[in-house]
Amino acid sequence: MNGRLQTEVKFGVSGMAAPLRRVAMRRPGRATLEADPGRWHYAGPIEPDRLLRQYDAFTERVAASGAEIEWIGGPADDGLADAMFPFDPSFMTPGGAILLRPGKELRQPEVASHEGLYRRLGVPVIGAIEAPGLAEGGDLMWVDESTLAAGRGFRTNQAGIDQLQAIVAPLGIEVRAFDLPMWNGSAACLHLLSLVSPLDRDLALIYPRLFPVALHQLMRERGIQLLEAGDEEFRASGGLNLNVLATAPRRCIALDGFPETVRLMRDAGCDITCFDGDALCIACEGGPTCLTLPILRDDHPSIRGTHP
After folding, report:
1. Res 149: pLDDT
2. 11-297 maps to which CATH number?
3. Above 90 in pLDDT, residue 232?
4. Residue 204 — very low, low, confident or very high, per pLDDT cuts 50/70/90?
5. pTM check: above 0.90
């Protein structure tokens, strides 16, 4: 594989843990800093100064991983408090991006800014989820390069999953749906990725009490070792101890304050970098995965093996 081809490849994702080379992010704006926690279903009052400091510290860790950050723009007064969590409104595949349709109605206007991002970056959009379909990125997880797991729940419905399957079928990708539990109801945010974080092609962190049985069986059949996080830190974090961003195989960014979860991953050979996120993540119900949108990982078939 020559260096020229490597340079030309600017997008493509078909896994969750290969080296992260290009990622989109959006810094919290006025809408987030002045958000009404009741309207946006945030867990606590917003502390603007601490939230921004923690966001900047997280950004530094993403940049230190070697990923190139592309910033998502938008009007400073667009009122989209959740836009700092760009993982949900669109989804990257080996063939290009898919514009999703969030189940949280307050988030649906965010899709336009993602479409603008892809236009600016020259990334093709290969499809879009349309009403009555609903789909959020937090409910989508690559099991392997040809299998995409979709959590069926309040944020992603069967109509959205059917549309998603039609979009990715020409790429040779199968979408398999798994029902999510009711947990805390429709207003709360329980995504599939609230219950699992892939750490490597053959390693994932899960919360077993709420995890779909059929997905557990599928991952075991595919040779994936499953680390089981305990109850206490899951409850204390609102599930965000499970929200871990893999920037490379077994190299991860996680929330500080949950030592048993971190120990579990380190014992499995993972290099974990932590950051303080009580004002950023715990208060606003979104973790390091939610704060990023992978645009290019080295698992893309065109460049696999071109990096050491």
Report:
1. 98
2. 3.75.10.10
3. yes
4. very high
5. yes
Query: b/e for 176-197, b at 16 or more Cβ within 10 A?
Result: ebbebeeeeeeeebbbbbbbbb
Q: Are strands 251-255 and 271-275 parallel, antiparallel or unpaired?
A: parallel
31-83 pLDDT, tens digit each: 999 999 999 999 989 999 999 999 999 999 999 999 999 999 877 678 999 99
The dihedrals phi and psi of 50, each to the nearest 5 degrees, come to -65, -40
Q: Residue type for 130, please? A: E
CB-based burial, 70-100: b 16+ in 10 Å, e otherwise: bebebeeeeebbbbbbbbbbbbbbbbbbbbb
Rg of the chain over all Cα atoms, to the nearest angstrom = 18
CA distance 72 to 84: 9
Domain ranges (residues) in the chain: 11-297
Residue among 161, 175, 148, 113 nearest 15 (CA): 148
